[in-house]
Amino acid sequence: MPETHVVVNLSNRHIHVTKEDLEVLFGKGHSLTKTKDLIQPGQFACAETVTIKGPKGSIEGVRILGPERKETQCEILASDVFKLGVPGCPVRESGDLEGSFPFEVIGPAGSLKKERGLIIAKRHIHFSPDDAKRFGVLDKQVVAIKVGTERAAIFLNVVCRVAGNYALECHIDFDEGNAVGVSSGVMGEIVDVQQ
């Protein structure tokens, strides 16, 4: 029998930036200040935060996650679309930015208008190749996962992401976690694997 239980952690809104954009926002030669390592190897939370702005409003204190990326992208919560004024902001996997929303990023040293890069993160599970074998899943396969107790729900359309540098972990966002009354570190159970 394949394994079914996986730790679920909640993702807050956050931003990934390029080296060039980091220098515009924080000044020439600035490098990211690591505050804590994340579960995914090589990924970390930073001391630096920015303001993101949409057509109707802005959100301050959006944390940068490192390391720097090839393209700047910001992952928001579904509930943020009203404050920012970005109805129809697409739900996407990280890095899938084709057709994503434009937005503005404001830092202490400067600001940037990005033509694309604003998304709502698609819920997903990270697997190493060995973990994927144990769970009987393939990269990009879609599963359903049950999360919570008193207010439990089954989340559909959870993408399996398999890579050699991944650690086993499911990511849902704060909106989804609040809806089922859980916080980071809860165990979820894969209840269906779409063939």
Describe what you observe in this structure.
This protein is mostly beta strands and 195 residues long. The chain has four helices and 14 strands. The chain has helices at residues 19-26, 80-84, 129-135, 174-179, and strands at 5-11, 14-16, 34-37, 44-53, 58-66, 73-76, 91-92, 101-106, 111-121, 124-127, 142-147, 153-162, 169-173, 186-193. A six-stranded mixed beta barrel has the order 1-13-10-12-11-14. Strand 8 (101-106) and strand 9 form a beta hairpin. The longest helix has 8 residues, at 19-26. The protein starts with a strand and ends with a strand.
Radius of gyration: 17 Å
For the largest beta-sheet, the strand count, sense and barrel status come to: 6 strands, mixed, barrel
Count of folded domains: 2
Mean pLDDT, nearest integer?
96
Question: Number of DSSP strands?
Answer: 14
Major sheet: arrangement of strands: 1-13-10-12-11-14
Provide the helix percentage.
10-25%
Instruction: Report the β-strand fraction as a percent range.
Output: over 45%
Supply the number of helical segments: 4
Spans of at least 5 consecutive residues whose pLDDT stays below 50 are: none
Secondary-structure-based class equals: mainly beta
| 3D shape | globular
Order of helices and strands: EEHEEEEHEEEEHEEEHE
The end-to-end span amounts to: 16 Å
